[in-house]
Amino acid sequence: MSVSRPSPADPDLTLPPNGLPAPTRHRLQPLLLGVLALSAVPAALLAADRVAFENSEKTVALVMDYPALAAQAKETGQTPETLLAHYRSLGVNGVAVYEDVVGSAVQKGRALLLSGADLKSRNPDLPGIDPQKTYLRSIEAGTVEDLARRFNFQALIEERTIGGQTWYEWPIDPRFLPAGPDTALIDSLKSQGYVTLYRPYDDQRVLNVGADWPDVPFIAFNGTEVIGARDPEQLQAIRERLGNRVPALIEGSRQTGLNDLIRGRTAARMFSLNATWQGRLSPEEVASKYALAARERTQRLLYLRPFPTQAETDAFLTRLGGQLDRAGIEVGTPEIRNYEPSSLLRALSLLGPLAALLLLGLSYPLPRVGLLVAGLAGLGALALNGLQPFPAFALIAAITFPALGIVLRRARITDWFIATGLSLLGVLFVSALGASRDSMLGLDPFRGVGLTLLAPLGLVLLSFLPRQDVRRTAQDLFRRPFSTGDLLILGLAGAAFAVAFLRRGNTSSVGVSNTEAKIRQDLQDAIIRPRFKEVLGHPLLLVGLSGVLPGYLGALGLLGGVMGQASILNTFSHFHTPLLISATRAFIGLGVGLVVGLIAVEVLKWLIRTWNTYGGWNGGQAPRELN
């Protein structure tokens, strides 16, 4: 491909009135913009399909942890059934029941368990009692016999007659071995209409794992791995025994083997708070987190634990119910389906990011450098995503579109709308190519999410290169003298960018103050909270484009503004967040940023004018004309 170069008389060489480096217009720009427009059609169709799918997925189940509920009932002098009925009146419609253990049969009075030492102390004259073993006797006929048949060491369990009674001698203490479901409890809960979630334990000594699982809609595994994660044959058996039960994806707990277990089927995202962490928070704070999980993270199962007191639990459930109601989220039995986008529409959408990346490279003052940078960016995205085209081109869109508008047009303040429009166009491609069944479940997170904030800044910065030999540019920069003020300003700008970059995502290496955390919670309870990077970045871009700042400060403002544009695409790269929620967040940020930015431009004009003219002093120079 031949690359056109502007002649010395090219009007593009004229410095724009805002003092920023002039953009370059390539002769292929209209054609590539046309390709962008056409490829946006299938991307928009995919966006509409995704919105329709997400709007049909607004039912959640409030699932109460049964052991915690039973413990609170005991402390408050109630039965678990009575306390659960009370919480049902406040919105709870589900119960999580753990698998019984051998010790449960003892607690329920169906069996008696004694250590060998205890049994020997009670019968000192009887021979054959081994103090190092454990002895069980059925109170309800057949209980211990049935338990023994569950384990692969059943041949080592011996029947003994001691004091005229039949005991079973176990080689280990079996109290915490999995003993199957409490079918009576589960059947009772199901008959009352509760959404039931079963939590089985994993133990390699159990035979025929999963053969006796109850008929419930959901199942959640305990620990850091699913049953069978270490044994492919057992994992396949578990896959077959799941039946219609839907496994839960526990937020913040990536269980080993879960991806393989749910291959070809679906799963339900489940949110819960660690009991210790919940104990440090108020009921209002916990309710806010659960409501946020349901509204903005597509969590379909909200796993609840009661607070230390019933009054606190009542306050938590009341507030949570109100927040879910305001968000239009219904409490019921979630119907879990997979999102399956059209492969044809996704393939057609690939042209958009490709055209945008090519256009970006050709629009650099040094087109060969631009094409090299574009090529490296494309190859890097493919490599980062294992040569998978859809997620790779979603990443290309996320790093290209925030920079494209600023590289193409940056002559006046109204070019902010062009940059923003192209960023929003990029959103369509990020969603079309990145949203899939696994990414929306959180199983396949967006690879390169940090690059979506960093790469656009570099792409815009490279467009500042002058039309001359790169070696000469490097030499000029190396020889340029820097004042103390220059170093101070650049240091502050670098620190500000580092803080903004490190504070990306739901968790970061840079914390927030208690005041900021309270502001965030209040905002997310009242509205969909905008991202602070956008609220700051959009005004910076407006200030940079306005030309109000002298010297290179305008360019620094523009580069800071790239963060706001990049944050738009970064927002939409969290595919577990509904598309309309991300759109609302982005448009709130755009609206606030536009207003703040326009005000900031006028305030800065007044401040600079006052500084230059106050008392007749202008630093020995004519006042800078502000436009």
Automatic annotation (TrEMBL):
Ranges annotated as spanning the membrane: 28-48, 344-363, 392-410, 416-436, 448-465, 485-502, 539-559, 579-601
Signal sequence region: none
Cross-referenced InterPro entries: DUF5693
Organism, as annotated: Deinococcus enclensis
Keywords on record: Membrane, Transmembrane, Transmembrane helix
Disordered: annotated span: 1-21
Identification of the protein by name: Uncharacterized protein
Matches recorded under Pfam families: DUF5693 (PF18949)
Keyword Transmembrane tagged: yes
